[in-house]
Automatic annotation (TrEMBL):
Keywords: Cell membrane, Membrane, Transmembrane, Transmembrane helix, Transport
Domain ABC transmembrane type-1: 62-246
Organism expressing this protein natively: Mycolicibacterium arseniciresistens
Lineage, broadest ranks: Bacteria, Bacillati, Actinomycetota, Actinomycetes, Mycobacteriales
Places the protein is found: Cell membrane
Membrane-related topology note: Multi-pass membrane protein
Residue spans crossing the bilayer: 76-96, 108-126, 222-246
Family: Belongs to the binding-protein-dependent transport system permease family.
Pfam families per UniProt: BPD_transp_1
InterPro entries on file: MetI-like (IPR000515), MetI-like_sf (IPR035906)
Protein name according to UniProt: ABC transporter permease
SUPFAM superfamilies tied to this protein: MetI-like
């Protein structure tokens, strides 16, 4: 048996284990609930959580919540991405901007952005704006850091070659900087997606009357732990799903590297 065949079988084996382990955990959880080992008022059985999900899907509340939460994430992600990539590019290309812009950026980055919620409420009220801005703030820093670092790590020999060939600034930017920086920027985008959903969980606790966070808050008032856990599962699935989309785009955009 060749080493390659063994490797393929090994990958399949561990892939099966990765898929099976969550299923086994759910079965143990369900069994523990059925035997009374896990109190239902503390942690409902998976079957009860699934029933709560079916209830929310059936009455249309989940679809409405997903639409509202999705819009908040998209708006915050777009705003934060534009700011993060633009600043990272500018600072990466200019030593002067690095000396003047990067220090205050690092100071702001050191602040826990979720700790700014009270200040955002005072500044922007309790409507949609503070929620979107919180997401944008959390999203911007991973993209800023990755873009800045990616540009500074571009091979200097490429710039020397471009200078010999007489490339203009925009030609160097389009043909050298963008392709070289793209992999690390996409990594930053994946990090930003995770932060966007994490931020949204907290941001939607700000007097929200729509969205997944509202469903969770409302369920808390009525002691519906099953709906609370289902809402958290939805957040997790959204994060995993959007990350998978970005990874697929990353493979397609960078297929020339394989």
């Amino acid at each position: 048996m060749s080493g390659r065949t063994k490797g393929v079988r090994g990958e399949r084996k561990w892939g099966f284990v990765r898929l099976a382990s969550p299923v086994v955990l759910l079965l143990l959880w369900q069994l523990g609930s059925a035997l009374g080992l896990i109190p239902q008022d503390v942690l409902p059985a998976p079957s009860l959580i699934a029933e709560a999900g079916v209830e929310l899907i059936g009455n249309g509340q989940l679809a409405d919540a997903l639409r509202v939460s999705g819009i908040r994430v998209v708006e915050g992600l777009l705003l934060g991405s534009v700011v993060g990539v633009a600043l990272g590019t500018a600072v990466g290309l200019s030593r002067w901007l690095e000396a003047t812009v990067d220090p205050p950026m690092q100071m702001v980055r050191a602040l826990p952005h979720l700790g700014l919620i009270p200040l955002f409420i005072v500044w922007f009220g309790i409507g949609e704006l503070p929620k979107v801005l919180l997401v944008a703030l959390g999203v911007s820093f991973p993209l800023y850091l990755n873009t800045f670092s990616a540009i500074r790590q571009v091979d200097p020999k490429l710039f020397e070659t471009a200078q010999v060939l007489g490339f203009s600034f925009w030609q160097r930017f389009r043909d050298i900087i963008v392709p070289s920086a793209a992999p690390q920027v996409l990594v930053g985008f994946r990090q930003s997606l995770a932060i966007a959903w994490l931020t949204l969980i907290v941001a939607e606790q700000i007097n929200a009357d729509k969205g997944i966070g509202f469903l969770i808050n409302n369920a808390r008032d009525f002691l519906r732990i099953d709906i609370i856990i289902f809402g958290l599962v939805v957040y997790a699935l959204l994060g995993i799903g959007t990350d998978a989309i970005v990874r697929a785009l990353e493979r397609r955009a960078l297929r020339y590297r394989t």
